[in-house]
Design goal:
flat, Double Stranded RNA Binding Domain, LPS_assembly_LptE, about 30% strand
Amino acid sequence: MFNTFKKIALVASVAAISACGFHFQTGQLIPKELQTISFESADKYDPMSMAMRKQLQMNNVNVVDPRSDVPVLRIHKVSTSDEVVSVFKQGREAEKVLIMNVNASVRLPKQDAHEISVKVNRTFFDNSRAALAKSAERDVIWNDMREQAARQIIAKMVALQHQIKTTK
């Protein structure tokens, strides 16, 4: 009886959500002034640059060639490091914190650049007995961190909306 009620409640909630036109927002929060931008980085095939382009596409931001009438998003520096957090009894590293810092800026036409700084941390359990598996896991974690940093940069671009309106 209780399982039947759960199933009916689940079906009803899914039907209600789909019937009301619910959908995830993609790019609707980004200010109109930043819907078309030029993206610059030192290496356009760098993993961070690729992650940033992917997030811009997912948020319906048009990336165009550099022009004087569009804002410019520039990735200045991406730095990565790791710190040992805990060790095994034998003195080997057990757990690390992976740290990624990204410095970027958004320059609006005929205005100063607005600096954006993002820091992403993740913990990583480092077991030397499974070195190959941990190496692959570490690569996956770094890729996730790049995606998260790109999402944070876009979130900070949305926060620039107030500064854009006050400078006009």
